Amino acid sequence: MTRNIASPASPEDGVVAPCPACAASAEQGGYGEQGRHGALVGAPRPAPTTQDVARSPLDPWLAARLSIPLDALSPATVRARQVDLLREAVRRALDAPFYRARLAGLPLPRTLDDFACLPFTTADDLREGGDALLRVDDDAVARIVTLPTSGSTGAPKRLRFSDADIERTVDFFAVGMTTLCRPGDVVVIFMPGQRPDSVGDLLDRGLRRAGMQPVLLPPAASGAEHAARLAQTGAQVFVATPTQARAIADAVLAGLAPASRPRACLLSAEATPPETADRVRAALGCEVFDHWGMTETGYGGGVECTAHHGFHLREADIHVEIVHPLTGGPLPDGQTGEVVVTTLAAEAMVLLRYRTGDAAAMLPPPCRCGSPLRRLGPVRGRIRRYGNHWDIITLAKGIRP
Length: 401
Ligand SMILES: [Zn+2]
Known about the structure:
The protein has helices at 20-28, 58-65, 75-93, 97-102, 112-115, 123-129, 163-176, 199-209, 223-233, 242-253, 274-284; strands at residues 15-16, 143-147, 157-161, 186-189, 213-216, 237-240, 264-267, 287-292, 302-304, 311-313, 318-323, 337-343, 354-360, 362-363, 375-376, 381-386, 389-393. It has a single domain (11-393), classed as 3-Layer(aba) Sandwich (Rossmann fold). It is an alpha+beta fold. The structure holds zinc ion.
């Protein structure tokens, strides 16, 4: 549901070969830099002026969660704390039969380098591991999310979450949304939210906790209908998938729906093609924020700040690595590789070094918002391995006006 890719990617979506220019441009953190490869064509986002930029609210939240004084927050202090959390995560993972077998005979990691030697967890492991990945009794599982496989065969992936897991996500949403929301704002949510503990429901709860007025709207048949509903609410902010937001923008620009004037929107659940963000800005005049996350990370993962220079990460709950898609070795900041996540605080089901298949680079600190921490750069597509080669399948662009 909250994969960061619009749809199961296919070669028809377009393929680009990774190259040093891609890696170098990741350091710039801009959007549209893959245009020369025919992949992500779009105008670079205008750089916000200094007075527009506020430090990410995730920094004080992280400092509190990690017991680090805010003025001591740095990549080094976060890394040091994460080593402790990773050791605890490995210990907890060993409660699950899958990891007891997978890690048998391996010592607990003492350093990040040790941790980076542990075996990966793959999507196939999730499909085939089933209940063996669960480390709590069934009655401690509050929510099961089933993700269908893109092929016609094979078991689906099943992610399990406890009440405490869900609470951490609501907490992240409550803080992360203050990046773009103010108390009292009406916030329209177009994400699925009718079922308890669905992503829309968790976002609704997070927004209420932070003093906003969320409005959950059921899925509409067209962009024009979404746009009309958005205008009716008079919302200051809306949350949508890039596909939904693009359809709203197209409908407004085509004169099929009334234009509303929200102040900001958050695009989530799919990777955002740069031209989609441009189109939404052109149609609605709002500031566009991007979110990265997936069901495997408990939905939330990272959110842009007002500098729009990468995703500030939920580093108290997840550890993010960028690895070479073939060798699995670590890649330096700025170099595009596969995003690998470890769920540091997960209770029902720990994922150690889970290969997400997302292609992205880590952006070197500091951020222009004043945060000293690293951020995850834009997701460029999906990693595809074949033989001794790899490339990136770029984002699907299916748009329904
Ligand atoms: Zn920032």
